[in-house]
Amino acid sequence: MIELVVIADDLTGALDTGAQFAKQGVATFVAGRAEPDFSAADPSCAVIAVNAESRHLPAREAAERVRRIVRDAMAHGARRFYKKTDSGLRGNVGAELAALIEAAGCCAEGGDVAHGASAVAVGGAAGDVSVAKGSGAAERGSAAEGRDAVAEGGVAEGVCAAVGTGSAAGGAIGAGGDFWAGAGRALPFVPAFPKNGRVTRGGVQYVDGAPLAESVFARDPFEPVRHSEVARIIREQADLPVISVPASKYRSGAQGTGAASARPAIHVYDAETDDDLRAICERLKHRGIPRLLAGCAGFAEFLPDLLCLPRSPALRASRLGCALLVCGSVSSVALGQLRAARAAGYEPHTLSPGLKLSPEGEGGPEAAAFARTVAASLCGRGRAALQAAAGSEDIEAAGARAAALGIAPEAARARIARNIGAMAWRVMGAARDCGRPVDTLIVFGGDTLSAVLRCAGHAEDAGHADYAGNAGHAGCSGLRPIAEILPGVAASRLVMPDGSLSELSLITKSGGFGGAVADIERALAAGRPPE
Length: 531
Hints:
By secondary structure, the chain is α/β, with parallel strands linked by helices. The chain has 15 helices and 21 strands. The strands form three sheets. The protein has a 16-stranded mixed β-sheet with strand order 7-12-13-8-14-4-1-3-2-19-20-21-18-15-17-16, sandwiched between helices. It has a three-stranded antiparallel β-sheet with strand order 9-10-11, with no helix packed on it. A two-stranded antiparallel ribbon has the order 5-6. Helix 11 crosses helix 13. The longest helix has 25 residues. The two termini are 29 Å apart.
């Protein structure tokens, strides 16, 4: 039975969240398609993580994709959902949270609500949202049942912020002043990831001590984050009450009652430590296990206990062996880690603008020669880095080349990801041919990882199948997270069409955070002995 469906907006997000379950012995499968076939899900896997590939979509399209995934999963017996968001709050956060609420037909603090009892429709420009008010089960969680509820009034003392419009404007807390509001009506959203320096305080997201809008995410070359207030980011795309919940409310265990809300709401929890995340889970468990939850990978670590997920002995990550690092991310964090990787022995090889932007299936002699050069580094040193850029000059050169060719920025980004993914397989095939097959593929960046997996289906066509002593990687169905190497860094295996696992070890992380390569190697050697 599918106990939980995790919906992420990119592949590294799906994997590092899946790793939170896998490391605790919860069998987890990360689907290789944006809209997977839930009827073919491995019955041994309690958690299915889906990469909706919606990070860079328009908000309306992202919302529709999330709705389809939720409805399809529910039709195949999925019981609960976790909307995984980026801890830097990039992407379509508001639109996707609203879509989850609508498609599931409920919000779920404190128990289930009948499907169709409440609906939120997302449409129009900039997340124009309408609410269809239901009846019956949607009104559960009244004060008479001892539940806390959101009232239609001002913000109660102790609540940092409430944003919304319509009858529930203000997203107010009931007369008792208790945050634990709207049983069956509120989506708990916990965006903090303390182990990676992401905390939420007073409804504001901080990254390594800096407000989000002043962090590295504000300088993202493609999608800079403009706001630090979580409610404001959500409200750009969703017309729902957004209530910021101070840690004092769940730490104190305060009780209270009030009138039920006429609308679903999103409750954004402050959290600065893992103890805070654990306390949130304890309070949610006390009030009734939720059907819907949202947050980043940090909060997911505590869900196996909250949701009482079945467990078995956890798998172990493999030895590192011969390692190829592939990085398509151009974030300042990723570029700094590439420089550190060079010091750790990973000889860097940067694709030229021509190779990065070549049409699909092309590359010719230059691509073949480049692959042989990288493979020679692997054969000689057992380490090499394949990268889209080493610094700002490479980024600017690729942008100028794209402009000269009339390629729009979004199309250029997709083409670069595809070409670096295809080049990774060329390199691995060339390394195998020279007698040094790659044991471990390390990938920085969700777009890059998606491209690597898509290109895996063409590895045989390129003559690179069976390089790792396996049956080949054409048509791989997804990934099995094995372990969390460091916070935000996951170890996985490719799942073949017959359900077997590839011998190639895959280590992945977001381009925006995660450990340096040297730290990954040390952690793997110290904590993950060879199988």
